[in-house]
Amino acid sequence: MDAARGGGHSSAASAFAAGIAEEAARLWSELQLPVRVDWAAVAAQCASLWAHARALLLVPAVRLLVFLSLAMTVMILVEKLFVCAVCLVVRAFRLGPHLRYHWEPIIAGSADGGDEESGGHGGGGEAKYPVVLVQIPMYNEREVYKLSIGAACALEWPSERFVIQVLDDSTDPVVKDLVEMECQRWKSKGVNIKYEVRGNRKGYKAGALKEGLKHEYVKDCEYIAMFDADFQPESDFLLRTIPFLVHNPEIALVQTRWKFVNSDECLLTRFQEMSLDYHFKYEQEAGSSVYSFFGFNGTAGVWRISAIDDAGGWKDRTTVEDMDLAVRAMLQGWKFVYVGDIKVKSELPSTFKAYRFQQHRWSCGPANLFKKMMVEIVENKKVSLWSKIHLWYDFFFVGKVAAHTVTFIYYCFAIPLSVLLPEIQIPLWGVVYVPTAITLLKALGTPSSFHLVILWVLFENVMSLHRIKAAVSGLLDAGGRVNEWVVTEKLGDTSKAKPGTNGSDAVKVIDVKLTEPLIPKLVKRRARFWERYHCSELFVGTCILLCGFYDLLLANKGYYIFLFLQGTAFLVVGFGSILFTSRRDAVHSGERIAADVNGIALAANLCRSPNS
């Protein structure tokens, strides 16, 4: 009976399903839906939509982009022409800082103005010398700490009238001990040198400099000379800079020029020298001559301590604490002077990784500072309208924002994209004449490297991608790297050291046989593709090359030569070419490996010694 009941249920279900199927078939036949798609019609509709979007949105947007790029390019050209004209007048008429300001050497004499035979190293003759503080901030500077400390200790100034302050934020205990030992070594020779450490790295360099001014012995100091760890001033540095501050109470800062000891290491350092020489020889010279203002470079300069206090002291709100202090001091009415005749030896980043970190800080920081100070600049009542216009427009907008923006947006985006759009026609002067004039004006800084101009321009265009990303993040105050501070790696002169001239931190090689490894072998994780190469540069370079081929084969606008060169430059940088590798890198790596081997050998010998 149960089986019969189950069979009845099954028949009813089957009949119900069959009824649903018949009803669905009837509805389908009534609807008469087309089963074939006319792909040609679909393609025509898509083409029509693309044509309308291109005509109404894309072409006007690119045309506006080209117009804005041309306008900013003209702004940059006018700024370069003005800077070069000012420097030409200054040099032609010899209007150097010694003529614009009162300068005379500080002559030692007795406190009562009597006999000058006492000299500058004792007695009352030291009274005319102001007390100077020399600050050297450091962070794990194993390769160069001796250079800066030794150069500072050799400065010609009465020993009782200046203090050297080594601000060590090192996290490596070995480096910390080495720096402290070096300070103690000079202190034993009678040099007034102080070794200062903090419990944390809050504020990075700005925090260290601010903390250094809180010590009791600083209260007697009137001026501060600042040097980064790789800077080596000449012995007469203070004798040539301090008189500007002593005889001109309106001057807050005396900035000197950087001289690069490793500019011939590789193409990367040559390109940096070309850019920085123009910055010092022209931009800072013009700013000092016309506006008595320029951005402090963070090192190789002498500040009046009262001007730092008047400006509000060091602040760590951006990664360009030096520029922040300079702008605030300028808004208080202080003047700056650049003395290009005084050169301080320093080191350029010789690895591409270190250079990228440095350029990120130098591009993001100023843009971020501009955002935070633009209203303060406009509302300031202590400086003239002309000075505010220069600071707001020329110094920040053109120099720190427009320069990075137009370099990438125009030369690496708008021009390649115009190849794909016949409606976009860029005038010849905007493609050839104006860029050529800007390039030649900037190349005046380093005439000896004029043969590298084309490669330099291509490299600067590639770096503009990195810089514009940093500048945008700074303007928007977005991203985790806005306040990132990565100390630029230095290699020092270790590769040039002669045998037998090892420093106090050298380790003697001990010939021992290791039977067991002292430390386990580390298995290095294989880097992924996007970690080994710079994918952004590779992508942009590929797109520019494709635009070049399109121009050569179809568009015929004549841009393909530039596009091929620029695209190739992006790929070269993206893959990390050996052209940008320093000759010292391999030597430096070998020395570090040798030092590690020596350390292991020493440890093994100590472990085997019965007295250990």
From TrEMBL:
Its main location: Golgi. One of its GO terms (molecular function) is glucomannan 4-beta-mannosyltransferase activity. Residues 223-427 form the Glycosyltransferase 2-like domain. It comes from the Eukaryota. It is found in: Golgi apparatus membrane. Keywords: Cell wall biogenesis/degradation, Glycosyltransferase, Golgi apparatus, Membrane, Transferase, Transmembrane, Transmembrane helix. The keyword Transferase applies. The chain crosses the membrane at residues 64-90, 391-417, 437-459, 533-553, 559-580. InterPro entries: Glyco_trans_2-like, Nucleotide-diphossugar_trans. It catalyses: GDP-mannose + (glucomannan)n = GDP + (glucomannan)n+1. It is a multi-pass membrane protein. The keyword rRNA-binding does not apply. One of its GO terms (biological process) is cell wall organization. Its EC number is 2.4.1.32. One of its GO terms (cellular component) is Golgi membrane. Gene3D superfamilies: Spore Coat Polysaccharide Biosynthesis Protein SpsA, Chain A. Belongs to the glycosyltransferase 2 family. Plant cellulose synthase-like A subfamily. This is glucomannan 4-beta-mannosyltransferase. It comes from Miscanthus lutarioriparius.
